[in-house]
Every structure is written in C-alpha cells, then in structure tokens.
Design a protein that fits this description.
Oligomer: heterodimer
Number of helices of chain A: 0
Strand content of chain B: over 45%
Largest interface: A-B, 23 and 25 residues
Number of helices of chain B: 0
Structural class of chain A: mainly beta
Helix content of chain B: under 10%
Distance between the termini of chain B: 33 Å
Helix content of chain A: under 10%
Chain lengths: 114, 114
C-alpha cells in the first residue's frame, strides 16, 4: 500500500532555533516529492519539489533532502521565525497514471515560540 | 501567491440544504482538483478535471458533484448537505506540464453542517 508517513506529528521550538522534519514513503513507482507549508485556515503552498535525481533543494531558510534508495526525505528549517508556525506536508507523486497521483502525509504541526 | 480563489471561505448550513462551493483560477490551468481535509488528517482527492467537460471522481468517495463548463471555473455541489459533510474543502489547479506538476491551492472553504 502506498503511504507517506511524517514525524514528528507536532513540534514546538523557540524562535531562532533550527529543526528537521522527517518524511518516509512507500510510494512506488516514484516521480517526485514535494514539501508544502499550510498555514492555519489556508491552502498549502509549495516549498520544494525534488525528482528522483535530486537529493537536495533549498528555498531560502528551507532545505529539503531526498534519499530515493531508503525512501526518506527531510525538511530542515534554519533560524526559525514566528511565521514558520504552520503544518508542513510531505507529498509524493507516482508515475502510475497520467494524472501522476499524489499521496499526502498528515503533516507535522510546527509551533515557533518567541 | 497563486491566483486561485474559493468562496465562501466559511459556511454554516442546516442538514438537507443544497450548497455550491465556488472555485476559480486565472492562471489558465487545464487541470483542477477538489480535496477534502479533516483537522490533523491528510488531504483526500474527491474530484478532478483535465479540462472543459472533463470530470472524474477521486480516491475518496464523495456524494458531491462537480462541473467544468469553463476552464477557469470548477464548482462543487452538494445536493443535500449532512453533518458528515462537515470538513474543509480545498480547490487546486495545475498546468500539467512535464514531470513536475505543481498544484496551486486556494484558501479553502470550511463547511459546517448542523
């Protein structure tokens, strides 16, 4: 069964600290992996997208890594800010259909305290 | 920020009422999607469209229906709302080009059925 598992479920850190969120997946075949940020009451916004051949991608203070062999990804947030408080969702796409079906994780709820 | 809009943002309605959730995008995207998301849970695809006059059911069974008469418009209708329909509904669109096909999400409609 194709699945996307994220950990931790929730995380609280102090402003200015770094943190790393994890994503493990069993989706096969694999096309790409995306990290989205979803603010409370809003739709998800894409942060990074990585294909099979990419093992790291940065977007400002966000750096995503991908190990396609172990089917693991991480999202590292550097020097956290209060505005980083949100749910971070890992999404994996397969090549099994013309739609390129997306498999969503449940997200990690990050709270940044001042 | 993506040019995709949803109305209403919040809706509280009684059981048995007919409702239509609106979704519009100004990016000229052919592909559009409706997702359902409960708190702390992953997004579930309930409908999608490849283009005008094309609609398909998604992975999660839903009593809702959709139409795609114009490229920019993808409304979702519930003929008779029930409390089990209480959820957040997210609309998304994508240009469907290449291996990496980013979906842009609207802000969502929070539906409560009493």
């Amino acid at each position: 069964k194709n699945q996307v598992e994220q950990s931790p479920q929730s995380l609280i850190i102090l402003e200015g600290k770094n943190c790393t969120l994890q994503c493990n997946y069993t989706v096969s075949p694999f096309s790409n992996l995306r990290w989205y940020k979803q603010d409370t009451g809003r739709g998800p916004v894409s942060l990074t997208i990585m294909t099979f051949s990419e093992n790291t991608k940065s977007n400002g203070r966000y750096t995503a890594t991908l190990d396609a062999d172990t089917k693991q990804s991480s999202l590292h947030i550097t020097a956290s800010q209060l505005s980083d408080s949100a749910s971070y969702i890992c999404v994996v796409s397969d090549r099994g259909s013309t739609l390129g079906r997306l498999y969503f994780g449940r997200g990690t709820q990050l709270t940044v305290w001042p | 920020e993506a040019d995709i809009y949803q109305t209403p943002r919040y809706l509280v309605i009684g059981t048995g009422k007919k409702i239509t959730l609106e979704c519009s995008q100004t990016m000229g995207h052919d592909k559009m999607y409706w997702y359902q998301q409960d708190p702390g849970m992953e997004l579930h695809l309930i409908h999608y469209s490849y283009g005008v006059n094309s609609t398909e059911k998604g992975d999660l069974s839903s009593e809702s229906t959709v139409s795609r008469i114009r490229t920019e418009h993808f409304p979702l209708t519930l003929e008779s709302a029930r409390p089990s329909h209480t959820s957040q509904y997210l609309c998304a669109s994508s240009d469907g080009v290449g291996q990496v096909d980013t979906q842009y999400f609207g802000p969502g409609t929070r539906l409560t059925v009493l």
